[in-house]
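Researcher: We plan to redesign the surface later, but first we want a full-length starting point. Tokens attached.
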């Protein structure tokens, strides 16, 4: 992929940069490298047609990106959004970037030979298939959060004891949290319960 937008800055020097973004409240972050960036841009367009805000990130060098500061990484990969990586090959190296709630789209097999668009369609790497999968995940997430929000906002829970079963286990490496999505996802509910003066027990 060659970015048609001229820039005096070497956007690749940090390993990743944002190519397309129309809003700071993105529901989806699409991450790819090389020729797959074109596919990500087509997915972005279709998501926009369906009123789903997204941004596209090109990550030409994972090793350089891994060396950047935590603030820079969080700016590029919005953990509050659904992160989707796209790779026309093995997707194992992308799993650490998408987190537990994200999606890696790839080809973990060999032996296909045809024009690339036909191969993409055959192996579920088409724009339509990926957009449909993203929409299903977002619908499931929104439905679940709507039910939880309805409960916390509409039930009379003041001064009552609320028992929550939350899986807050997070992966650690050298005593540092590698993926905090589970913690971040629980905060809106916990804040709402605290504001309503509920007594919270987390198990």
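Model: Full-length starting sequence:
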């Amino acid at each position: 992929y060659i970015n048609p937008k001229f820039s005096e800055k070497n956007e690749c020097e940090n390993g990743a940069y944002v190519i397309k973004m129309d809003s700071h409240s993105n529901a989806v972050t699409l991450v790819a490298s090389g020729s797959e960036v074109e596919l990500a841009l087509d997915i972005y367009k279709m998501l926009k047609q369906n009123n789903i805000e997204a941004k596209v990130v090109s990550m030409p060098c994972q090793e350089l990106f891994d060396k950047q500061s935590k603030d820079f990484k969080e700016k590029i990969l919005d953990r509050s959004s659904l992160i989707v990586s796209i790779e026309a090959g093995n997707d194992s190296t992308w799993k650490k970037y998408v987190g537990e709630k994200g999606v890696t789209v790839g080809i973990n097999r060999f032996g296909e030979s045809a024009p690339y668009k036909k191969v993409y369609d055959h192996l579920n790497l088409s724009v339509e298939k990926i957009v449909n999968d993203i929409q299903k995940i977002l619908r499931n997430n929104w439905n679940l959060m709507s039910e939880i929000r309805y409960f916390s906002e509409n039930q009379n829970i003041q001064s009552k004891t609320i028992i929550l079963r939350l899986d807050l286990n997070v992966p650690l490496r050298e005593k540092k949290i590698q993926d905090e999505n589970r913690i971040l996802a629980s905060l809106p509910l916990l804040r709402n319960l605290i504001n309503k003066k509920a007594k919270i027990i987390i198990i």
